[in-house]
Amino acid sequence: MYVRRAYSPLGSLLAVSLWLSACGTSAPTTTPAPPPPSQSPSASAPTAPAPAKPTASAASASASAAASAGGSPSASAAASRSPASPTPVASPLVVPEAQMANAGLKPAAVAGHSVSLPPGFAIAVVASGLSAPRFMAFDSAGNLAVAEDGANRVVIIPSQGGHPSGSPQPLITGLSDPTSVAFFQDYLYVAEDRQISRYRYQAGSASQRQVVIPNLPAPTDHHTRTILFGPDGTLYLAIGSPCNVCNISDARYATIGRYNPDGSGYALVAKGLRNAVGLAIQPGTNQLWATVNGRDSLGDEIPWDLLTAIRQGADYGWPRCYDDRRPDPQFGQPGCADVALPDAGIQAHSAPLGLSFYGGSQFAAEYRGDMFVALHGSWNRSKPTGYKVVRGHFDGGRLAAVTDFATGWAPTSDGQVISTPRGLGTSGAWGRPVQPLAGPDGALYLSDDYLGAIYRISYGG
Asked: Which domain holds residue 393?
C-alpha cells in the first residue's frame, strides 16, 4: 500500500526510520486572483527546443483520446456524455501475484538495467534527471506535461519527430507537491497538495494562474491529489485518506468528487476509497475507473488493492471493511452489507497508481481497449511485490484477467524498508513505475519517480 511516495537516487541505502506525518500548517486561502510574483508559482515558456504548436487537426484527434490519455476533451466532446455508472459487482476478480505471471516476456535493455516485455516491444528513456515525476498529460500538439513532485514544478517535454523527446523544460515552478496535471480547453490544470489551480495554456507556455479549488484537506499519509476531466467536461478529483486506518474529520478524505471546470458545483462520486490514485475513463463505456491502495498492517496477503469501475454514490468500505466485505478488526462496525464490491482485487501491497486504457493502433489489435496499470511496489511486505506494469484484459465488457506486461524494476532479494527523501521504500529496487499513459503516437509512456525518468514503450511487431 502506498504511504506518501517513496523515491530515492539509485543505490541509496538508508536506515529504517519511522514515518512521521508532515502536516501541521493551515490550508491555503488563496483567492482566484494570482498572488504577487514573489509569492506566486512562476509560469514560464520553455526554451529551445520549442514545443510543437497545437493545430486544429491535432486538437480534434486529441479530444477523442483525452479521457484515457490524460488530455483535454473539446467543448463539443463535453456535450452529453456523462460517465456511466456500471452495474454492481457480484463477484470480484481476485488476482494474486502468482496469477499475474507471464512466461512469454523477454528482457530488453534500458538505463543500464533490464525490463521484460512481450515479444515485439521495446523500451527507451525519453527523459531523465527528473525529481519524482508523477502524473503526465499530453497537449493537443503531442507535448508531454509532467508533474515533477520532487522539484515542486511542472515541466514539458517537447514533441520532436512525432513523439516527446529532448530535455524537459520548466513550465510552472514554485508549486507545493504537484502530483497530477490535466488539459481542458485553453487551460492546464495542476493538482497540488492543498489546492487545484489552472493556467492559461498556449503553445507550450502557461500564464494567469487561477486557484479553482482552494483549501483541500491537509496532506498527511497520502499527499497526492489526482485530477481528470471526463468526456462531459466534469473535473474529477481523488483525495486519499489521512492515515492507514482511522475515523476522518473531513468528509472529502478517501473520496472521489466532481466539480465544474471553474471549481464550483462539488458533488460526491464515491467514498470509502482509502487511497484512490489512478483515474481513467474507459472508452466506449464512459465509465470512470480507479486504482485504490488498501490498508497496511494486516499481513502480507490482505487486504486487496483494487482496480475498479466507480459506481455513483457507492461506499467502497474504508475504514470499516476490506476485500469481499470483511469487517476491519478496528473499525468494522456497523457491518459491511452496504459496501460496494470492486471489479478486481489484486495482490496486497502492490500499490497500484496510474492506469490508462489503450486505444491506439501501434500495438497489436489484441491490446485495443485493454488497461495498463503501474504497480509502484511494496514497502512493508516481507517479500516485495509490484514494481511493474500489468495489463488488464476485458472480455464481454468485464475485466477478465490481469497479467504482467513490463517487469524488472523490483528488488532481486527481499530488501529492507528504507527511508527515502519523502517517504518509505524498499532497498534494492532500481525504479518504481507511477503512470502509464497512452500517447498520441500509439506508444505507451511511463513515469518512474525513483529513477527520475520517463520511458517510451513501443511495438515493432
From this structure: 65-459
362 in a structural domain: yes
Q: Does residue 156 lie in a domain region?
A: yes
| DSSP conformation letters of 377-419 | --SS-SS----EEEEEEEETTEEEEEEEEEE--S-SS---EEE
CB-count burial class (<10 Å; 0-12, 13-18, 19+) for 440:
buried
Q: Would residue 170 count as lying in a domain?
A: yes
Task: Give the span between the Cα atoms of 376 and 379, in whole angstroms.
Answer: 10
Question: Which range among 82-91, 103-112, 334-343, 365-374 shows the weakest confidence by mean pLDDT?
Answer: 82-91
Q: Count of H helices and E strands in the chain?
A: 2, 34
Q: Cα torsion for 160, 147, 191, 262, to the nearest 10°?
A: -10
Q: Is residue 51 classed exposed, middle or buried when 0-12, 13-18 and 19+ CB atoms within 10 A define those classes?
A: buried
Helix (H, G, I), strand (E, B) or coil at 153: strand
**Residue of 68, 50, 53 whose CA lies nearest to 139:** 53
Give the span between the Cα atoms of 16 and 78, in whole angstroms.
49
Phi, psi of 338 (to 5 degrees): -90, 5
CATH number of the domain that 438 lies in? 2.120.10.30
The pLDDT tens digits of the residues spanning 87-105 come to 899 999 999 999 999 999 9
Is residue 135 within 8 A of residue 179, CB to CB? The reply is: yes
Confidence band (pLDDT; 50, 70, 90) for 459?
very high
Asked whether the beta carbons of 154 and 131 are under 8 A apart, the reply is no
Residue 87: exposed, middle, or buried by beta-carbon count in 10 A (0-12, 13-18, 19+)? exposed
One-letter amino acid at 144 equals L
Helix, strand, or coil here: 430? coil
Is pLDDT above 70 for 27? Answer: no
Provide the residue count of the chain.
Answer: 461
Q: Scan for cell 452489507, then name that residue.
A: 337
Residues 6+ apart with CB under 8 A from 431: 111, 113, 387, 409, 448, 450, 451, 453
Distances (CA, A) of 49 to 30, 42, 161: 34, 20, 12
Structure-block grid coordinates of residue 373: 496499470
How far apart, in Å, do the first and last CA atoms of the chain sit? Answer: 36
Q: Which residue has the cell 502536516?
A: 23
- What pLDDT, on the 0 to 100 scale, is given for residue 79? 34
The DSSP annotation for 108-131 comes to: EEETTEEEEE-TTEEEEEEE-S-S
Tally of structural domains, the chain? 1
Q: Is residue 112 part of a domain?
A: yes
